[in-house]
Amino acid sequence: MSTPISAIGISTDASFPVRRSVGNVGGFTLLELLVVVTIIGLLAGSVVLSARYVNPEREIEREVLRLRSLIDLVREEAIMQSREFAVLFAESGYRFYVYDHLEQRWVEPPGDRLLASHSLPEPIRVDMRIEGRDLVLEPTLELASRGRNRADDGDDTPQPHLILFSSGEMTAFEASFYRDLAGGRVILEGDLDGSFEVSKEGFDDR
Questions:
Q1: d(Cα 102, Cα 109) in Å, to the nearest integer?
Q2: Count of C-beta atoms within a 10 Å radius of residue 125
Q3: What's the rounded Cα separation, in Å, for the pair 81 and 4?
Q4: Mean pLDDT, rounded, for 1-24
Q5: Is 30 helix (H, G, I), strand (E, B) or coil?
Q6: What residues are paired with 60 via a beta bridge?
Q7: Contact 188/67 with Cβ under 8 angstroms?
Q8: Helix%, strand%, coil% for the chain, nearest 5
Q9: Structural domains in the chain?
Q10: Nearest 5°: CA angle at 137, between 182 and 201?
Q11: CA distances to 73, 160, 168 from 128, in Å
Q12: Which residues, other chains included, contact 125 with Cβ-Cβ below 8 Å and sequence gap of 6+?
């Protein structure tokens, strides 16, 4: 039985009745349609305006929390299923894999949208360190999933960076999330025993 390795060689829906007025079966009037269109336009504008003024630090923190929560969840699944899971990173996002011992390769977890490809909201990016080593990530998950972070040996199968072992241990890592290289960062560090630490660099204290 082959042992999975990483990219760097590390072994209520409620229904409500709808009542229609008998005297009003002809559809919407032009005025009603105009009101609806106006409301939709105002709502869309408010969303755009609020998005422009989102605190950059909070936006990055949400992405760090999402990754940490998913890793915690998948670690539990790895232990209960006695299977190895893993995470493949790109500068613009990440996705999860599970090791198929029959095919002896990493495959996408079937039917789980939470573990599918996740693209970071623009312009957030992530840098990775695995066991103290800086990684050069592909810019997109499409490129990363082709195995381009391996030597040119003709093998284009995905080679994830972070492994979540069935023993409960995981690859030690550091994921640094940022909006621009000269700005602040939120750093998620994971240790071999599955513990986490979150720190910040370059943000003004508020």
A1: 15
A2: 18
A3: 16
A4: 49
A5: helix
A6: none
A7: yes
A8: 25, 25, 50
A9: 56-201 (3.55.40.10)
A10: 30
A11: 21, 12, 21
A12: 91, 92, 177, 178, 179
Q: How confident is the model at residue 145 (pLDDT cuts 50, 70, 90)?
A: confident
Sign of CA dihedral 148, 150, 154, 160: negative
The pLDDT mean for the chain works out to 79
Q: Which two tokens stand for residue 48?
A: 């755009």
Does an H or E element contain 61, and which?
A: helix 56-81
Whether the Cβ atoms of residue 175 and residue 65 lie closer than 8 Å to each other: no
Q: Report the SS3 class of residue 39.
A: helix
Cα–Cα distance, 128 to 92 (Å, whole number): 12
Could you read off the pLDDT of 47-88 as tens digits, one per residue? 444 444 457 788 999 999 999 999 999 999 999 999 999 999
Chain length of the chain: 206
Using omega within 30 degrees of 0 as the cis cutoff, is the peptide bond preceding 109 cis?
no
Question: d(Cα 105, Cα 159) in Å, to the nearest integer?
Answer: 9
Is pLDDT above 80 for 16? no
Contact 137, 89 (CB under 8 A): yes
Q: Rounded distance, CA 147 to CA 167, Å?
A: 26
pTM: 0.70
Which of 130, 155, 158 lies closest to 144 in space, CA to CA?
A: 158
